[in-house]
Amino acid sequence: MNNLYQHINENAAIVAQALDAHLKESTTKQRPVIHQENLEVLIERLQLDQHIASGDLSGEKLKQFVTDYLNATTRLHHPGFLAHQVAVPHPTGALGSWIDGSTNNAMAIYEMGPAASSIEYFMINWMLSKIGWKTVPSNQQLNPESLHAGGVLTHGGSLANLTALLAARSAQVPEFWKSGNPGNLVILVPEQSHYSMKRAAAILGLGEDNCLTLPADPDGRVQPSEMNQQIEDLATEGKRVMAIVANACGTAAGLYDPLPEIAHICKQHQIWLHVDAAHGGGALVSEKLRHLLNGIDQADSVVWDAHKMMCTPTVCAAVLIKDHRHLDHAFEQEASYLLHAKDQPGFDFISRTVECTKAGLGLRLFMTIAALGNAGLASHVEGLVEKAKEAAQLISSRDTFEVAITPETNIVCFRIGEDDDTQLEIRRRLLERGDFYISSTLYRGVRWLRLVFMNPLTTLDDIEQLLAEIEAIQQQILTP
């Protein structure tokens, strides 16, 4: 075993140097933001078979492997990265991932990671306080008489949404865990909801067909004025609404649903309100932007991904529940080798999560925010949103382009021409060139090109260059 650690300083230096070169190449656009080679070609170049057979990944061979690996990665630090809701990670937060991977403290139970558990506990309370919910010290955390909030960090927003809806099921249908599905439960979600909602409905035993769409205005925001009628109609059919989901913000165009009005209706009908703030929850750290989330404190559960707008390495998603008891009772089962009487100077997160083994996700989140500070984090989020608004104005000023809607967050949907297939072909050719990496989405029944501003290094000059490339590609398509 000692051989495992013999060259740790040398190998760590190799990795650090390679990462430093990678970041410099990316931020200065020396290499393309995306370059997709054939999978088998990459496997061969990385010499995966040889390294596994020889067990030789150290020294010069490690250097070559890491260099080849980084050259094949998608470069999120490149100013042309505009595709997806994934953070450009802060270097200090990335060190948190390195520390966590090295110590490997599976901290779902406190004794397996006191430091990691303590930091996660602190960060959960930090996020709860941003919503405006009550927090308590750890020795009161499981007090069944206390009406405080609770939460846990999970490996991604999809798992976080599933966990939140598990808590909703526990609160609304407590007999479900043992007795099963009564057969009349439905979940109501926005038309722009994340695909994980239908997945969660299926996994929870409700069935995908019982994940129904809420009424929406022409832009796709939930329309509260029509919700009462929908709920009453479902009741007439013998259906029971277990939960209503609101977006903060939607994944396609980045729009926020009217939370106060939706919360009022949920309270009237005693329906669980879940707010999917996986992407847009970052606005809570900014005094300028948190108005977008007015009413979020009236929700029963919130999901908020730190690995989106908060510079935190993937993955780090928070499940936040207004009444801790609904999360603490969401998983009713026994694991006697873990759950038993013992000295407990800390808090076990295992009762709040699907995962038995869990990484120290709070460390990467804490180290990111501690490096930026509250003001720095707010400035980062505000800067991304402001850049998106400026880009939308720039695109709108060009006669050849159409912007779908004025952005509320850091997402801009736009198109050139009238043909949906042209948008997809433009994206394909952009990815082939590699100067820019953008996405595409369906919104209001139309195909749009989509920019997500995640990189603070992206400038309006970059957007000017992107638009010029798109116009040139369109001309190539029209005159082959």
From TrEMBL:
Cofactor field: pyridoxal 5'-phosphate
Single GO molecular function: transaminase activity
Lineage top rank: taxon: Bacteria
Gene Ontology BP, a term: carboxylic acid metabolic process
GO cellular component: cytoplasm
Sorted UniProt keywords: Aminotransferase, Decarboxylase, Lyase, Pyridoxal phosphate, Transferase
Modified residues (N6-(pyridoxal phosphate)lysine): K308
InterPro entries hit by this protein: Aromatic_deC, PyrdxlP-dep_de-COase, PyrdxlP-dep_Trfase, PyrdxlP-dep_Trfase_major
Family under the similarity heading: Belongs to the group II decarboxylase family.
Name of the protein in its database record: Aminotransferase class I/II-fold pyridoxal phosphate-dependent enzyme
